[in-house]
Model the fold of this input.
Amino acid sequence: MRPVVFIVLLATLVVTMPVLAASAEFPVSVIDDRGVDVVIDAMPERIVAVGALYAEILLGLGALDRLVAIADSPDNPAEAIDLPSVGPTYAPNVELIVAQMPDLVLGATDWGGERAAIEAVGITVLTTPLLTGVIDIFDSIHTVAAAIGQAAEGAALVGRLAEDIIRSESLILGVPPVRAAFLYAPTPDDPPYAAGTGAIEHELILRAGGINVFADIDGFPPVAFEAILARDPEVIFTAPSQIENLTGNPLLRAVAAVRDGRVVGIRGSDATSTRIGDALRSMIEALHGIAVD
Done:
C-alpha cells in the first residue's frame, strides 16, 4: 500500500471523528484487550501505568498529574521519571501497585497473573489490545481518554497525530520506494527478528515510502543471516542499542545497508506510542534524505 492510500485513510479518520462532549459522565464503559466490557464507576484520580504507552497517552492528554506510580521502563517519558516505581513492566509488583491505592491501573495483563490479583482487591484494570498498526494507537488513545473522562482531549490528540502523519507522508508522494527492513537483533550472534506483515514497523516502512523486503512473513519471526543478505535491504532500521549487533556481524558486511552505513536506530517505543510521528519522520529522512520539520 503506497503512502497516498494511507493519507486518504487518515484524512477520512480525522474528518469523520465524532465531536465529543467536553465533560464526562460516569460510569463509563470501555472494551479491553480481552473484549471484556470494563466499567469505570467514577473519574479516576489515582492512576498507575504499567507500560510506557499509557504514560505517554496520559502525558498527551494533559493528565499526567493523575499518574501516581509507573512500572520501570527505559521508554517512560522523562516527565514521569521521578514517580514511584511498581517494578519492571514485564513483571510489575502487585503489592506495590495496591499500596498506591489507585482507582485505575493501566496495562497490567494476565501474563503473570497481575491483572486478576489486582482486580481481586477491587481495583479496576484496563489494558488495550496489542498494537499492530497506527489505527491501534489511535484506538488505545480513545479508550484511555474515555476511561479517565477526557474523551474530547483524546479525539483532539488523535487528530494532531493523524495530521502530523499526513503532513510527513505528503512530502514523499511520487518518490521512488527504497528497499528496507526493520530488524531486532538482541545479540550479535543469533539471527535477528524481522518485522513482517501485521507489525506496526511494517506499516511504518510503507508510510515512510519504503518496501519491506520481509513483507511476505507474518509478525516477528527470526530470519537467517543468509536471507537478509539475499534480500539486500538498502536501509535497515533497528533499536539504537542493537545497531552494532548488525553492523559488526561479518555475515552482513555485504548487505547494502551495512556496507553504505545506513543502519538506523529507531526506538520501538517511538513506533508504538504517541511519538509515532517522530519515528515516521526519522524513517523518511533515513530512506529518502528528506528533512521533515
Notes: Residues 3-164 form a domain with the Rossmann fold fold (CATH 3.40.50.1980). The chain has two domains: 3-164, 175-288. The mean pLDDT is 91.
